Amino acid sequence: MTLINSVILKCPNCSHLLEAIELQSFHLFKSEVFSDGKIDSTPLIPDVSEILICTDCNTDFWREDAVCLNSDQGSDLGALPANQPSDLFLSFNCESRLSISKYYNKLLSRGFADTYEKEVYLRTLLWHELNNIIRYKAKIDDIQFHEYESLLANNLKGFISIYKPACFTEYLFLAEMHRELGEFDIAKHILEDIKLQETSKALKQILKACGKRDKRVFKINQ
Ligand SMILES: [Zn+2]
């Protein structure tokens, strides 16, 4: 059963009341996992972003930083629906995916992510959004490809510089970041170190891609 709840939040900037959705539980029937950790599921999980944009003053803020009110008060108080980053970009072609990526990149540059957890969240969003161009085979021209590559490399370098992996899956992500940067030997070292403790299909397939010197995101064969 899917349980979606609506919550009323107070914009931290202008105090306007905003209505946002919250996911309580979700049943997945089928899911596809990609080498960068993105999971596509059937049915699609509704987009519930931790980053919201006030519909009144246009300020972006973290959901966790907003005061949450009782949801049944919302409609009486004239709450506006809060925007999520994906609401600002209506189509999902390459141009639009690059625009969302540049938006996330701008948030990072202005220090919007002020804790380790927020930076990991935002850099993961940016990583997945850029890879979506390749993942969903969007049409891309040379200029856009150059832009995609440079945004991806900058984000992955920044990500690696702060990332503190603490479990098997996080070491796998670290290796994947190096692989997508074309640093195959570093990726292999990380994978061979964790291979001693655990074996997984994802690990084997990422290792194989390193052997082929392939940098692209790919779907993990389950
Ligand atoms: Zn506001």
Explain what you see.
The strands form three sheets. Strands 7-1-2-8 form a four-stranded mixed β-sheet, with no helix packed on it. It folds into two domains: 3-85, no CATH class; 88-211, Alpha Horseshoe (Serine Threonine Protein Phosphatase 5, Tetratricopeptide repeat), CATH 1.25.40. With 222 residues, the protein is α+β, with helices and mostly antiparallel strands. The model has no long low-confidence stretch (mean pLDDT 90). It has helices spanning 94-109, 116-135, 142-162, 168-180, 184-195, 201-211, and strands at 3-10, 17-25, 30-33, 39-42, 51-53, 60-62, 67-69, 80-81. It has six helices and eight strands; from the N terminus they run ββββββββαααααα. Helix 1 packs antiparallel against helix 2 (116-135) and helix 5 (184-195) packs antiparallel against helix 6 (201-211). The radius of gyration is 19 Å and the shape is globular. The chain starts with a strand and ends in an 11-residue tail after the last helix. The chain binds zinc ion (ZN).
Keywords:
222 residues, Serine Threonine Protein Phosphatase 5, Tetratricopeptide repeat, 2 domains, 4-stranded mixed sheet, 6 helices, 42% helix, globular, binds zinc ion
Topology diagram in text:
Blueprint: E1 3-10, E2 17-25, E3 30-33, E4 39-42, E5 51-53, E6 60-62, E7 67-69, E8 80-81, H1 94-109, H2 116-135, H3 142-162, H4 168-180, H5 184-195, H6 201-211
Parallel strand pairs: 2-8
Antiparallel strand pairs: 1-2, 1-7, 3-4, 5-6
Helix pairs in contact: 1-2, 1-3, 2-3, 3-4, 4-5, 4-6, 5-6
Bound molecules: zinc ion.
Zinc ion binds at residues 11, 13-14, 16, 54, 56-57, 59.
